[in-house]
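Memo to structure team: turn this sequence into structure tokens by end of day. - J.P.
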Amino acid sequence: MSDSILREKAFKFAVRIVKLYKHFVEVKHEFTLTKQIYRSGTSIGANIEEATQAESRSDFIHKLSIANKEAFETHYWLRLFKESDVLTPAEVESLLKDCEELLRILTASIKTAKNNA
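Reply from structure team:
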């Protein structure tokens, strides 16, 4: 999968996270937990963007690894929201699916980059 597809998927995911955060703040008046998912969910794409400007292969791998860690954290928050009934299963399933797809792509990209080093 090309970097541009990964970048686009991460960007679209971040937009969804921003909208989720906005909904929580404006409608549910919840600020503490949603700041966590806002930070980690938008950081995925930001680190992928940084990776495109990496100074070396190891820097590239490092930036993608940070994005991968942020995706795992975001996945945690989504699961927590689902299990604690902060979000309904219907509300969270699509986000979880997109997050899992990002995790798969990032893991494969990191593995490929390491093998090509």
